[in-house]
Input
Amino acid sequence: MNVAQAAGEVLAADASKRGITESLSLFCEHLEVDRISLHSIDQTGDCFRVVTSAGWAFLADGTELPLEISSQVLGPSRGGLFRNRNFQGDEAFDRPLDLLVKDMGYQSGCSIPLFMGSQPVGILCASSHRPNFNPDPVLDAMNEASLAITQALNQAEASNARVMICVDDDLLAQGIARVIEKTALVDVETFSSTQELQESGRAGQPCQVVVCDVIFDGIPVGNFLASLRSGGTNSPALVLATKDSPMSRSLARQGGAAAYVARSAGVDRFAATIRHLIAGDAVGSPLPLDADISEEPEMPQLTGQEGKILVLLERGLRFKQIALELRISESTAKGYARNLFAKLGAHSRSEAVYIARNRGLLDFIEDMA
Output
């Protein structure tokens, strides 16, 4: 069985983005191609978007760029073939992305257009680090597999979903985005603050899934999701908890999240859950949990001062020290502590700290600070 036939069989079994990526990897494995990438052409005909790729990393999935900046995509976007055995020696290979391709050490490559009727809708590009690499076997295999790849691309584009990631840590958000992009063909947008979200104009727009932590930008998940719903975004929410605890699970459930996954559960668990939510499938109970839901505690309604008292008690401060820290009298500090103990069902400072740690309440208060 040749590469094109093997790629077609993979796509026949799985036409999702994961299946497309797996089919492309066969070209790298059997034709000594260092990178092969699939791009879609936007409806205006001015830009291309990286759908997925296999082999050496270059442009991230979802990257959108003008067609004019790359010789390797511009010709095929107009219906022609691209083949070049010597990038480095070709003075005409000098568009902005061409120069970056050279800097990345690529020496040769080829590309074909993918047609829907008479209109190019995508581009399949292959690149090699070897100079004078013969592109003809690669072109033949890409052409033979082009119908199956085009059908998979069209199906994936037609069901393209949008996922909104709202996580304070931008590096973490980008990591989550890469996992989602490799899991399903989706547009992923990341936001690290409510201000950024509001300024983007996306807050009231529909999307398939919202991914957030238990606390986003100092706001509990329930309040954050309520603000999205009031603005018109009624998407199911997946809480990806940085710190798993009974309190985190309770807050997710009380906030109306559709699903909950702790980061400690691993990438596979997260990827499976996001696929189910994008597809609109039920994911088991309204909120799948890693522990018995009957054991979830209610979130105690602590005042700001009670929360500060709890944090200072956890740090080991005595009431006299707490009073100095908060600039209140010692008797007032003890009064706040009595109210705190009552809300936690504790009878001593040590018991209050133990309960707060066990429930994850201290993490919640610190994230809110």
Notes: Confidence is low (pLDDT under 50) at residues 282-286, 288-294. The first strand starts at residue 35 and ends at 41. The chain is about 45% helix and 20% strand.
